[in-house]
Amino acid sequence: MTYDPNNPYAQPPAPSPSMLPRILSHAAALALGAVLGIGGARMAEYMENPEAMSRPEGSLSRAQLIARLDAAEKARAELEGQLATKTEEATQASTALQEAGQKVTALETKVSDTEGEIKILELKVKKSAGKSAALQKQLDDKLAELESLKAQLDVALEQKAQLEVELKESKEETRVAREETEDAKRETDDARIDAVNAKWEGFQSQARVDICEKDSRSKLSKCRDEVIAGLSQERAARFKQCVLSGQAAPRLLKVDPKVKDAQLPKWSEWFNETGKFTKKNWYLVFCDPTLPEAGGNGKAARRSEPLLDLDDEEL
Fold first, then answer.
1. Residue 272 and residue 284: Cα distance in Å, rounded?
2. For the purposes of burial, counting CB atoms within 10 Å of the CB of 152, is it exposed (0-12), middle (13-18) or buried (19 or more)?
3. What count of Cα atoms within 13 Å lies in the side-chain half-sphere of residue 294?
């Protein structure tokens, strides 16, 4: 029976075997077009923000790490300055209170001595039955001196009390400033560690790119596995110590193929002498472990160069 396309009840004929390759080719083309469409969208997203697609979800970009570390170090420097100011103010307040206390003690001694002298003069005036004008004048002068000393003592006591309040406030402000500075130090250390970890991750990524040439997928995978194995935890610790100590970051270098029996520079070592992909072609240059900056005092040195910059390898 002939197929009538105008008849809604007519069934279309089954495709002939000769048409199957054409149908499958068409379907494959549609599928490939869908994949390319998705890939094109992803590429457009990468071109707009390349870092967003090369990092785990929720991690910080290089620019964010730099901003965080710079902000933390700036805040720490400001708080350390404030702490130094508050500490100096507390020291000055303590010195002023000490001097005020000494002044009060001296005035109390004078008041006590003057009161003793007045008692003696009163006895002498009493014995003279008021006939000695000189004794009476001495007594009057001492009484006036006593009033003056008591007035000075009252002022000194008020000043001492005020200084005690100020010293207490100054000590509290210093305590708060010290706690804030310690928090800022921890934040700076955390930010510095994050930056160093990011630098190490970038170093690993760049090492895989530098060592592993473009080849078949199987060889590329084996090469990357060899590189990852060569970047051990021990080397990671040495890399991070160099950076944290303020020295130059370790480098991965390739031996000039024209040089035979190449001798490595000081503080260097072969990446993997027996490796299939590295052999004696690549070596690592670390920092000088004998310098004081690299000592194990647990403190991160001040940076002589940025831990991260916008020219670092992609993370």
1. 10
2. middle
3. 16
- Do 156 and 261 lie in a common domain? no
99 and 240 inside one domain = no
Residue 51 one-letter amino acid:
E
CA distances from 24 to 28, 33, 240 (A): 6, 14, 55
- At 28, which helix (H) or strand (E)? helix 20-48
Decide if 201 is inside a domain: yes
| Contact indicator for 66, 308 with CB cutoff of 8 Å | yes
- The answer to whether residue 47 sits within a structural domain is no
Residue type, 193: I
**Please, which residues bridge with residue 284 across strands?**
252, 269
68 and 201 both lie in a single domain: yes
**How many domains does the chain fold into?**
2
Find the CATH number of the domain harbouring 168.
1.10.287
Asked whether residue 46 is assigned to any structural domain, the reply reads: no
How far is Cα 77 from Cα 302, in angstroms, rounded to an integer? 12
| Residue 167 in tokens | 């010293």
Identify each DSSP E strand in the chain by its residue range.
251-254, 268-270, 282-285
Q: Is residue 314 part of a domain?
A: no
For residue 268, report the phi and psi dihedrals to the nearest 5 degrees: -115, 160
pLDDT tens profile 64-118: 888 888 888 899 999 999 999 999 999 999 999 999 999 999 999 999 999 999 9
What is the bridge-based pairing of β-strands 251-254 and 282-285? antiparallel
Which helix H or strand E contains 77, and what residues bound it?
helix 62-127
Q: Do 161 and 296 fall within a single domain?
A: no
Give me the domain span that covers residue 280.
Answer: 232-305
State the CB neighbour count (10 A cutoff) for residue 189. 15
pLDDT digits (tens, 9 = 90+) for 247-276: 888 999 988 877 777 788 888 999 988 888
* 240 and 203 together in one domain: no
